[in-house]
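Let's practice the habit of predicting before peeking. Look at the sequence and jot down your guess about where helices and strands might fall. Then scroll down.
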Amino acid sequence: MQFTLGIEEEYMVMDPKTRELCSHEQKIVEQAHKLIRDKVKAEFHQAVVEVGTQICTNVEEARQDVALLRKTIWTIAGDLGYSIGASGTHPFSEWALQLITDHPRYFEIVNEMQDAARSNLIFGLHVHVGMENREMALHIANSVRYFLPHIFALSTNSPFWEGRNTGFKSFRTKVFDKFPRTGIPDYFGSIEEYDNYVKLLIKTNCIDNAKKIWWDLRVHPFFNTVEFRICDIPLTTDETCTLAALFQAVCAKIYKLRAQNLNFIIYNRALVNENKWRASRYGIDGNLIDFGKEMEVNARALIYELLDFVDDVVDDLGSRAFIENTSRILEQGTGADKQLRIYEQTNDLVAVADFIQEQFLKGV
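Done guessing? Here is the structure:
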């Protein structure tokens, strides 16, 4: 089976003078449409631009596409007098001052969710991994839930919120927790059980379609993909592609085990949530729980164990170089660690915003 990849990134639009988030009045999207067509779209807040790659056969192809998208948006934004960055939250801009995109769907969300929606000024990374069918997608989704906190810890890139050092490596997840149907999903015994859950929500007017299920991981409602939604948007293209490679590798490994009639242990959602909490608070610097050993283990050690776990599938996927970049993140720190370092050196959140901008095209 070929584990195709699709990557979606959300970028922040800033005023180059003040470094505040600002509305681009969809000018960036309009210009980008001419060059990259449907790979770019408006988001809920007018200070956000979302891009998505084509369906890519491997991580190298995905990297080329992400690099092209970043360069394209950066150039268009610069020509229009804006600057661009990638961070799970903006260091100091206030959500109450941000404009909502003029679209009936977004007004409907505001009407239902009120300040939970208005304050949802966050920037994420979504990775789609292609599956042969929805039954296999659900089997893999059930199993890989355990690894979500490990990979999420590597993505942490939102330590600041409205001018405050929150004490979290990923405060973005805390902001998003205000939404319904978020977080680690439950275990579903069959695709029919999952579909019946969705039908019940639609029937009882909780949602009008399955895209309003915003879990950290979901079997996509329309495509044969497992969609990973837990990560902060990373500072750089290389970090994005490393995370995508890890998600692809854990899917391929679970698939390989299934082909050998082996199953990975399914852990309770409440237990996985304990690790997600730790990852959001401490990133790669804390301890995660090893549920097999029933003990706390250094997060870095568990991530290295994850690399060992997937090692026998990465060469077939052609992703070894990207997987090996995980070690660099573990040594140099995540985006959050780097942002906090700049702040410790300068005591200036404008300097942090400048750093976020500077990193956007690094290595591209």
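How did you do? The first strand starts at residue 5 and ends at 14.
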